[in-house]
Amino acid sequence: MAVVQEPDTPARGVAITRAGDGGDDPSGDTQPSEDQSSDDRPSADARSRDAAVVALVLEDVLPSTHVTVGPDGVLVGVRDGLPLTATEEELLAAAPAAREVVAGMSLAGAQMSHRQVLEDVLVVGVLEARLPTAARGSVPGTVLSAVRALSARREEGKAACSGVLVVDDVGEWRAHVEGHDGLLLEPLAVPLTVDERFFAHPATHHYVDGRHSLFVVGPDRSVVGILRLDGAHDPLRVAAGDHLAPALDGPPAFAAVADANSVVTVVGAGGLHLRRRTSHWRLVDPTLLPRCLRLAGMGEGDAAILATALSALSDARTGTFVLVPTADRTPRLAGVVDPSRSGAVLLTHLLGRSLRELRDRHALLGLLGHDGLTMFSSAGELLLTGAIIDLDGIDAAHSGGSRTHAAASASTAGVTLMVSADGQITAFSDGRQLLHLER
């Protein structure tokens, strides 16, 4: 497993290696040699300490999840109201590798630098488990180092953007995408090789932007071509990952992108979606927001449409909040943002429209992307937009600004989803926080 270093910072003196490197044990478990005395083996207290450190790191990576250490040292994640997803369980399964790294550290109180290293170990561990051939050449760690370094670059005041698609078997992947609508692979006449400084050359992010195009990298770190993507002009398709799905839903592959918000995003098949912002990795499973909405009785299709729209607003760093009421409950309102005659006429014109219709007519993002509460029925019909929540006499049970207090208050009538101006998404139900995602 390659070390993933912060850009332009010295190594921390921590060598991250795959468990079992240099040995014959394919399981990755470190086995004591015959001549190793029992005194040299980690004590039960040390193993428990190491597991507790990894549990703390996992609680940062997994949204709104409490991670505990079982009597056998296995890490278990629990979240109130929402079961863990398959991708969240993948991260928990990567914990043993992180525990071995902890055991090799002189860890004093899980310092910030150590936590960042352990997050990298977890993420790279998940990717290496998915792409075993690429893992042998430490390709996932090398690519993440390169993309992470790119996310720290700025040119003419703007973030540098590009991305890489890593495939485990180039031949199988080529056969999968050949002739696929929306995908065009442009082979390079002279292959390039990816290393940690690959994006230090301006041409690499001038000609391949990570949104409409990606470098395709094989398990030997060679760049075999440039993949052109259709549909990247639609923010809803990008937020849902639909423009990448044809390239990922086949032979093992993952995409790593540095975007215009200086965020590193890793996407894989089966809902794998990780984001690194402010020096920390967070899992952003795309199935979590629809699950929240379905708690209010919203159908699967409508929940997916609304969740995708909120994710697109998060990517655009545009704040909003939405309520799906249950049992005909309605929050106490103090008025509307635009009480003018024009506002009333246009609101009447929109009421009753379905989420699907608003999306297909390219009206949904504009409707959601302004001040005030927007309310949809569990059947996906628009009930209200631009409303002001009456907060008089309501105690501020949650930290945050007026939008947070309004979203928490409105959730006594159902499920609310709030997007902050910095892209974070929070779900409330019955006045309490249900989920918090950092995108």
Rg from Cα: 24 Å
Number of E strands = 19
The main pleated sheet reads as: 8 strands, mixed
As a percent range, the share of helical residues equals 25-40%
What top-tier CATH class of the largest domain fits best?
Answer: Alpha Beta
Strand content: 15-25%
Poorly predicted regions are: 1-38
Topology-level CATH name of the largest domain:
YojJ-like (1
Helix count, DSSP H or I runs of 4 or more residues: 16
| Arithmetic mean pLDDT | 85
- By CATH, the architecture of the largest domain is named 3-Layer(aba) Sandwich
Entry summary:
With 439 residues, the chain is an alpha+beta fold. It contains 16 helices and 19 strands.
How would you characterize the overall build of this protein?
The protein has 439 residues and is α+β, with helices and mostly antiparallel strands. It has three domains: 130 residues, no CATH class; 151 residues, 3-Layer(aba) Sandwich (YojJ-like (1); 150 residues, DNA integrity scanning protein, DisA, N-terminal domain (YojJ-like (1, 3-Layer(aba) Sandwich). The strands form four sheets. An eight-stranded mixed β-sheet has the order 6-8-7-5-9-10-11-12, with helices on both faces. Strands 14-16-15-13-17-18-19 form a seven-stranded mixed β-sheet.
